[in-house]
Amino acid sequence: IDPAFPLPHLLLHRTYLAAGEYEAAAQAGRRWAELTGAADADELMLLARAVNSSTLRSDARAILDRWQQQPAPNLMDIAMYRTLLGDTDVALDLLETAYERRVPMFALIGHGPWFDRLRGQPRFEALVAAIRP
Fold first, then answer.
1. Who's near 19: CB < 8 A, 6+ residues apart?
2. What is the pLDDT of residue 82?
């Protein structure tokens, strides 16, 4: 209803990433970043495009390395992009850290498609099992 409300753009960004629609993900991420100022729009666009472009992956990894060095990194988002880029071990390390730090969004790892590439990995399955009642 309100195109200036940022949350739908973030959700579209993530949904398009999961669906493999990387250009649409890039545009939705750009719009979210422009509306919120919470991230660099060009970085989000590059990250979305890098999932489908091996030539952009080193730049994407450099962005994620920098994000990880921030005082309070968003571990879940970084883990999502690392997973999509095929950095399985790094993504699992980040998810284990998120679990140890009790990051609230960690509770959703077993429900969304963003970590589908990790399913079946013993470390991932142990994390999912750790949050089940």
1. none
2. 97
